[in-house]
Amino acid sequence: MAYQDRKKVAAALKPIYTAASEDSAWAALVEFETSELGQKYPSTVMTWKNSWDRFVPFLQFPPMLRKVIYTTNAIESLNYQLRKVTKNRGHFPSTDAAVKLLWLAICNIEDKRAADRARDRGKPANERKAQGRLVEGQVVTNWKQALAQLAAAYPDRITPYL
Questions:
Q1: pTM of the predicted model over 0.70
Q2: What is the DSSP string of the chain?
Q3: Does the N-terminal or the C-terminal CB of the chain have fewer CB atoms within 10 Å?
Q4: Mean pLDDT for the chain overall
């Protein structure tokens, strides 16, 4: 996909993952498929169609919770950075050694972000470039409502940790 079309394609795909039901999401996908961007990027349409069975359970979540899921990349970012640290290490002499390396990596990642946040402190929001907290708790819009919806949907998994 051409770089200049990424934002347009993302905007055109948004009605699919924000749809209220599976039927309306499918209708939005068909609409994207027949659009100019859908014709230009048929591989995107095929990816959605091939992954549809894995996507549909996402639509079972309430809209507030869905938004938290599709806008929060902290976990993916942390996993990427931890994989980068462990990738070239081969094997570890013990599980304890691996855990220590991961802990030090997490501390290093958070220290870098804390320094960036300190540098941006006092600047207007639109001028800040530092990422949010990674380990201590990423700032997520409407997190309390989403957490309440998670606790209602999965009381045995969420409630013990609240």
A1: no
A2: --GGGHHHHHHHHHHHHT-SSHHHHHHHHHHHHHSHHHHH-HHHHHHHHHTHHHHGGGGGS-HHHHHHHHH--HHHHHHHHHHHHHGGG---SSHHHHHHHHHHHHHHHHHHHHHHHHHHTTS-GGG------SSS----TTHHHHHHHHHHH-HHHHGGG-
A3: C
A4: 81
Domain ranges of the chain: 3-60, 73-139
Question: pLDDT tens for residues 142-151?
Answer: 677 777 888 8
CA atoms within 13 A on the CB side of 16: 20
